């Protein structure tokens, strides 16, 4: 379960008509984001595929993140542990009404501070940014700018349970050529670890906090969505954890249809410090 720590990333399931949050809702499901990892360098690879019923057509989207790394540093500031997380490359394939494109998407970088609260509870705060790329995809969906994101995550990691609530606020902008609202997200996980298997329930919600007056829905309209699903994971050997997640929309406002998504992820430690040599070793 802990091998899946700290993957918090990127793309909202945007249609051509409206923006959604910059980090895709639900992308951190299954991950104990409130937990500060043992020092080391950890790598995750993921593929996310979704279908949204934009009647009378279907919007499809795939997101590929070959390397999302977490550097859990050896540094503590008092009882505060410091980590760095980043996704230097994100690839997106989008086929929506009026827009079909395959392009790089905004990379992500952040610094996280973590605390062990006792009794299995862990708290982390992340400060990061989605660095704006300018191409025909990001311009069309109003994402060709740098957005800042603040995360607050609480994780209960004990007795083979991972119960995590990851909340995050992301800044927007207002522009006639394409606006992005400020958004608030919640990703929720309740997963049980049994021998090599993980299984449980997941859910996510996303809400617009405002409605840009130009380049958005118009009339002060906002978007919101809530989805639920399930998770299954398996530990291969002692190092590689694979995970599959399936979610579907149960309620939405101004998203033009229900979204069903399948996410596959593999996480492994790339480097961890060697154990200290005993003082009496030759």
Describe the structure.
With 282 residues, the protein is an all-beta fold. It has one domain (2-269): Beta Barrel (Porin), CATH 2.40.160.40. It contains 1 helix and 14 strands; from the N terminus they run βββββββαβββββββ. The protein has a 12-stranded antiparallel barrel with strand order 1-2-3-6-7-8-9-10-11-12-13-14. It is globular and about 65 Å long. The two termini are 37 Å apart. Residues 1-11 and 13-18 have low confidence and may be disordered.
State the gist of this model.
With 282 residues, the protein is mainly beta.
Describe how the helices and strands are arranged.
Elements lengths: L39 E13 L6 E19 L2 E8 L2 E7 L2 E7 L2 E11 L2 E10 L5 H5 L6 E12 L2 E10 L12 E12 L2 E12 L15 E13 L3 E14 L5 E13 L11
Antiparallel strand pairs: 1-2, 1-14, 2-3, 2-4, 3-6, 4-5, 6-7, 7-8, 8-9, 9-10, 10-11, 11-12, 12-13, 13-14
Strand order of the largest sheet: 1-2-3-6-7-8-9-10-11-12-13-14
The CATH homologous superfamily name equals monomeric porin ompg
- Count of individual domains: 1
Task: Quote the CATH topology.
Answer: Porin
Number of helices: 1
Helix fraction by DSSP (H/I, runs of at least 4): under 10%
Q: How much strand content do the residues show?
A: over 45%
Assigned CATH architecture: Beta Barrel
The profile of the biggest β sheet is: 12 strands, antiparallel, barrel
The CATH class assignment is Mainly Beta
* Rg from Cα: 19 Å
User: Can you write the helix and strand succession as a string?
Assistant: EEEEEEEHEEEEEEE
Structural class: mainly beta
Task: Extract low-pLDDT stretches.
Answer: 1-11, 13-18
Shape assignment: globular
């Amino acid at each position: 379960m802990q091998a899946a720590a700290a993957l918090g990333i990127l793309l909202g399931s945007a249609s051509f008509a409206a923006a959604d949050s910059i980090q895709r809702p639900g992308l951190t499901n299954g991950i104990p984001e409130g937990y500060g990892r043992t020092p080391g360098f950890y790598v995750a690879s993921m593929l996310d595929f979704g279908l949204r019923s934009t009647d009378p057509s279907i919007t499809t989207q795939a997101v590929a993140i070959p390397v999302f790394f977490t550097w859990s540093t050896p540094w503590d500031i008092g009882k505060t542990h410091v980590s760095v997380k980043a996704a230097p490359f994100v690839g997106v394939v989008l086929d929506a009404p009026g827009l079909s494109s395959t392009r790089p998407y905004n990379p992500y970088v952040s610094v996280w501070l973590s605390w062990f609260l006792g009794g299995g509870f862990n708290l982390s705060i992340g400060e990061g940014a989605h660095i704006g790329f300018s191409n025909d995809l990001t311009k069309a969906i109003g994402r060709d700018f740098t957005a800042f994101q603040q995360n607050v995550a609480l994780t209960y990691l004990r007795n083979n349970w991972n119960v995590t609530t990851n909340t995050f606020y992301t800044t927007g902008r207002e522009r006639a050529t394409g606006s992005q609202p400020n958004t608030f997200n919640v990703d929720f996980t309740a997963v049980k670890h049994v021998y090599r298997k993980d299984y449980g329930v997941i859910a996510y919600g996303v809400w617009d906090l405002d409605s840009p007056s130009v380049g958005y829905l118009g009339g002060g309209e906002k978007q919101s969505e809530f989805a639920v699903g399930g998770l299954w994971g398996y530990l291969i050997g002692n190092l590689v954890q694979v995970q599959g997640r399936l979610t579907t929309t149960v309620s939405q406002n101004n998203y033009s249809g229900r979204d069903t998504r399948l996410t596959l992820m593999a996480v492994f430690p790339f480097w961890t410090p060697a154990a200290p040599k005993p003082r009496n070793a030759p």
